[in-house]
Amino acid sequence: MNSDYRWIAKRSFLLLTALALINSWPMLSGRVPFPAAMVTQFPPWETVRGPNLHIPPRNELGDLVTELYPWKAFTHRAIASGTLPLWNAYLLLGAPFVGDLQTALFYPPHLLYALLPTPLAWSLSFLLRAVLAGLLASLLARALGANRTASIGAGVVFGFCGWVTAFQARPHLDTSLWLPLIFLSIDRLQRRPGGAAVALVAAAFALPVLAGQPENAAHTTIAGLAFFAYRLAMPGGAPGAPGRARFAALFGAAGFLAMGLAAVQMLPALEWIGQLQRGFHMHFGPKPLHELATFLSRDLRASPNSAGVQIPESAGYAGMLALLVAPLALLHRNRRDAIFFVVLVACALQIVYGHGPIYWLAERTPVLKAIPNGRLLVVIDLGLAVLAAMGLTALADRLEAGDRRTREIAWLLSGAALVPAALGIALVIARGQAPTTAGARLPVSILQGPPSSAVVLFAAALLVGLGLSGRLRGGRFAAAALAFTAVDLVTASRGAFPFARPGEIFPPAPTFDFLARDRSPHRVASTDLTWGSNFEIMYGLRSATGYTVPLRRARRLLSTLGPEGDATSFQAGQIVASNNRVLDLMSVKYLAANTWNGSAETLASRPGRFRLAFSDGSVRIFENLRVLPRAFLVPAAGIRVLPDEDSQLARLRASDFDPATEVILPDRPVPPRDAPGSEALRGGEVTGFEERINDARLRIRADGPGILVLSQMHYPGWKALIDGRASPVLRVDYAFLGVAVEAGTHDVRWVFAPGTLRIGALLSGAALIACLALCRKRG
Description:
779 residues; alpha+beta; four-stranded mixed β-sheet; 28 helices
């Protein structure tokens, strides 16, 4: 990095860090950006926080509570114990942790969660994302020809735009913040080809994949490929730039290395996707045109916000000044790249809002047509940031020369942006306040409501007018523009997240204290949303339900006791109505219900099956009196072969199916050596059970040959060792793990060690070594 880039990087870093701290000042007193009230609103905390809990209208933060924070806490606990978490036994009868893309286990910035307490790492991640996104945007703008001050301004625009702010803590932002690095690395590859440039391109394309959001990774990859193709096709370039053939060859080599770097995540993920067996048939559709108001709305507080915009999915505010000066980029001396970003923004707008030939093409492109393309708003925000920096540079460079015709064109371009912006704000104000999802109307904020947009637009137009008229020149205009942009975006993004003390994040509750006292291996389950999905992870409790993308067999199995296709919670009515042993086979010992919605009364109506074990406020915990242990033996005489999955599931749901004496297999295993010829039932018992993150150890005594059933989801990568010798793993009872055992006493160990991870780690290691070697070579 030369001295000019170091100058930009240092000052951009300092400014962005200062703005991030101003925007998140409660962090300085130890508070954590987390919606704690979304947890304590549930019945288990009723007696702790009192019955009257006020939750103000907020933007959609549910994923932070149900998935993202619990996953980070689980990662920290596992690594602190010396184990890399490959399997998550705390949800959905067990699920792969390494294959689920959004866990982003190998994403380098997530090393924070291995080294630091989860609340601290979570808070620092908020600062890191904003600063890193802005810093990369600043360096990109400088590389494309923006002056120093304008380049720093581009960083402020992107680092604090509505999309980046609203998607904080989500893998969507972890993925998309690398988009400016992708553009920057391609520019570097063309201007200064060599080993280091190849390695930089490889890292830039691999990091979005490792960050864990596949749809956004697809968007960043497509945008990067478009920029490469544009640079390849356009004539000219920097002196000493490689020819087209060499440029293409170097880019191809970088792409090969990028796939290698990402292999450690991608190969397990491809295996996981294969187990989901979900096709690309979903259609998310475009966003409504009225949500174009997102580029004028400074409100990120609720969903929908005061302009009728969904937050975070439709957040896109990039500042009023950026809107007005972005068209001036066409006057920049680097018009070639300015045109690319204009076209990029125009194409993304068509796809997001469903109009124009590019939208027609996207709807007919495989994969692209089946992902939520509304998230291309981040591409638009980055494009506006770069164009604004180039526009401010043109205003400083070309208009200073006093070219009257250029000045007239600049007035025209800025006016072309000002008029629709003013009309849009007028329409938003005329529509009035938008109702929240709860039906209440939001108060109009002086700093963030639609009237504030009108005030800020007027101030931005005044500032541009002073620059165009020559009354505010040179450094003073640049400093004023940067200060204005910072104030605009920081005040707009304030209040997007609530803050809580670390002790308020998943605080203790009598219900969970009771459940944690039972140390026997079993599962618990919430019925009718007595608590939120995946809350069990935070309290070290294993659950049959959960919120993530469930495996296909898990989804079908769990639909027996809950809504079709929904694995987040069981329904008490369906449990009582089901006359089978599925719940028992899942080893669900305790069911949580509540008196708010009648689920407690429903379970209490079956006293012969469910016994009231604990109550606190409106919460009732019922013990399942027919529960089966996490591991048990079924004699060989009880094997029933059903090759078809539908027939297996139907038998599992049958009222006369007893999993303790009958086990369903898709085919008959190789019989143990001492298998008797008679059909006498001879079982045995599990005398010891110890479960850890990636393995389980059992001590069994088998009275005869049979099948050891482990109540854990069957998944590729599980291995069974009997007395230290590998034994074939069986899929039993439609979805669970099993292994054939002989008579006698045995030590059995189950280990999750997916081969895809081993191969991926080797490929990633080799690619990393190659990249390091390339960096040592001079261009």
